[in-house]
């Protein structure tokens, strides 16, 4: 398919390269169309419509976002490969470490943003750990209950057989 040269009055043609790059960044980062139209008018001296901005978004930003998603999936696969298993907890922690390092290394480093990011991640990890502890405590109580019941029915072959069947259903390996 042959690509057409943008019209001379198009949004693409109306912007300098730096402005175009900034517009793509704003759109890719999720800025609102109305805010961008205002930014274009004030900062770039360009008047545009929602339709023109939508066309620009679909032509220049959608392919960029698709590329970012593909890259992110490849990075996730690489992290899992580095960790050596499909342990998503370990892979997630490794990704958090890398993201934190990247944020701290950035010249636009905002300590507050990094702190919020880490607090959210740590809270999620703590909640997961609490859930695992609760599961382990419940399993321990169930096992203790099974031992007590088994002690009571010991010697009754039929009851022991039924108990073993129940135990297999309740605690699959």
Write the layout of secondary structure elements.
Layout lengths: L10 H4 L2 H12 L4 H12 L5 H34 L4 H18 L5 H43 L3 H14 L3
Question: How would you characterize this protein structure?
Answer:
The chain has helices at 11-14, 17-28, 33-44, 50-83, 88-105, 111-153, 157-170. It has 7 helices and no strands. With 173 residues, it is mostly helical. The protein is elongated and about 90 Å long. Helix 2 runs antiparallel to helix 3, helix 2 crosses helix 4 and helix 5 packs antiparallel against helix 6.
Short description:
The protein has 173 residues and is an all-alpha fold. It is 79% helix and 0% strand.
User: What is the H/E string?
Assistant: HHHHHHH
Describe the main β-sheet briefly: none
Global outline: elongated
- The count of DSSP E runs of length 2 or more, i.e. the number of strands, is 0
Radius of gyration, in angstroms, nearest whole number: 29 Å
Structural class: mainly alpha
Portion of residues within helices: over 70%
The N- to C-terminal Cα distance equals 57 Å
Low-confidence stretches: none
How many helices? Answer: 7
> If you average the pLDDT, what whole number results?
81
Keywords, separated by commas or semicolons:
173 residues, single chain, mainly alpha
């Amino acid at each position: 398919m042959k690509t057409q040269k943008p019209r001379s009055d198009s949004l693409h043609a109306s912007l300098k390269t730096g402005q175009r790059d900034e517009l793509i960044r704003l759109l890719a980062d999720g800025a609102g169309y109305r805010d961008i139209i205002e930014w274009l008018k004030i900062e770039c001296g360009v008047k545009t419509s929602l339709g023109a901005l939508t066309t620009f978004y679909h032509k220049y930003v959608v392919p960029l976002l698709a590329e970012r998603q593909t890259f992110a999936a490849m990075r996730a696969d690489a992290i899992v490969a580095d960790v050596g298993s499909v342990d998503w907890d370990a892979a997630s922690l490794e990704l958090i470490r890398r993201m934190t390092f990247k944020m701290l290394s950035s010249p636009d480093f905002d300590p507050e943003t990094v702190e919020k990011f880490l607090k959210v991640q740590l809270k999620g990890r703590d909640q997961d750990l609490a859930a695992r502890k609760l599961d382990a405590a419940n399993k321990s109580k169930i096992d203790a209950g099974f031992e007590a019941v088994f002690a009571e029915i010991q010697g009754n072959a039929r009851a022991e057989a039924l108990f073993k069947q129940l135990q297999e259903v309740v605690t699959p390996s």
